[in-house]
Amino acid sequence: MKDSIIISILGVIQLFISLLYQIFILNIFGTSRVLDIYFASNTINFIIVAVSISVMNFAITPILIKYYKKNEKKKLEELFSSLFNILFMCFFLFGLFQYFFAPYILQLILPGFSIADLEIAIQLFRLQAFLSVINILSALLLAMHYTFNFLYRTIIFPLIAQVVQLLFVWIFYKQFGVFALMYGLIISQFITFVLFTFPFIKLYKFKIIFNSELKDASRKIFPLIISSSFSRSNILVDRFFASTLSAGSITLLQYGEKIIQIINEFINIKIRYAGFMTFIVYI
Questions:
Q1: Residue 120 needs a FRET pair 20 to 30 A away by CA distance; which of 75, 106, 158, 276 works?
Q2: Residues 6 or more apart from 102 whose CB is under 8 A from it?
């Protein structure tokens, strides 16, 4: 009960800082076209984050916990290393695709943007091209933290990264403008990745073992990736049409979605962080 209360409090603090950051950048840039461009350039990365966390939580975490409960350390290490290496290679290639084809991708999903808007969006989009690698690997490492019951770290580490992100933007937004938001995001996600990595460095092996465990995990991953991608694709449709509207439309849409997300997170936070390990035992 004590752990549940502490984790819930930490989760509320994390949500509060996230809300504070959103209010802060809104006060700086307002509902302007500049902020529209930033949020639009972040569309693909947002979808990847949402899908990767969902897939890892529902497909991979139960398998890892099963091996952990059975004390099958070798299988756990092999599956973790294999998934880590496969995901790295796949999303690195995706990052290359995103970087080199950025103009074509953005012209397709943001038809209402002017040439000047697209030029800025392309720069921002390319800056985060390889964030998808960090995002998917951080999701896998998050699953490992759930497996080893490091629940406090799953909140404290992102909390530290969020504070650093807020401070960076606050100090440098006058110097870098909207690019300070992107630099802050990159720094925040990199810090989260590094902190998540430390406990499992010794478990990692630079190899891929194509065994039954990997095949079982793959059978569960790919259907979830497809279904989750479709469920999250509404944001692409929203921003496709919002790009053709007046300045500030994408920003207002983003904050509407953010308010709903924060409310949902606040309601579910105790279940997600404190109740997860209790339920998973009975799977």
A1: 158
A2: 122, 125, 126, 129
Q: In sequence order, which ranges of the chain are alpha helices (DSSP H)?
A: 2-29, 33-41, 43-55, 61-69, 73-100, 102-109, 115-127, 131-147, 151-176, 179-197, 212-232, 234-242, 249-270, 276-280
pLDDT of residue 8: 64
Q: How far apart are CA 102 and CA 121, in angstroms?
A: 9
Distance, in Å, from the CA atom of 178 to the CA atom of 41, rounded to the nearest integer, reads: 11
What pLDDT digit, counting tens, does each position of 7-27 carry?
A: 666 667 777 777 788 888 988
Q: Which amino acid is at 237?
A: V
Q: Sign of dihedral through CA atoms 267, 156, 28, 177?
A: negative
Question: Tokens in use for 52?
Answer: 């990767």
| Residue 136: both structure tokens together | 């998917």
Residue 211 confidence (pLDDT): 81
Question: What is the rounded distance in angstroms from the CA atom of residue 224 to the CA atom of residue 179?
Answer: 33
- SS3 (DSSP) at 202: helix
Straight-line distance from the first to the last Cα atom of the chain, in angstroms, rounded to the nearest whole number: 22
Q: How many residues does the chain have?
A: 283
Q: At a CB cut-off of 8 Å and minimum separation 6, what does 104 contact? A: none
For residue 105, what are the CA distances in angstroms to 73, 89, 100, 183? 43, 21, 10, 21
Q: Which domain holds residue 265?
A: 2-280
Instruction: Please count the structural domains in the chain.
Output: 1
* Tokens standing for residue 60: 């991979």
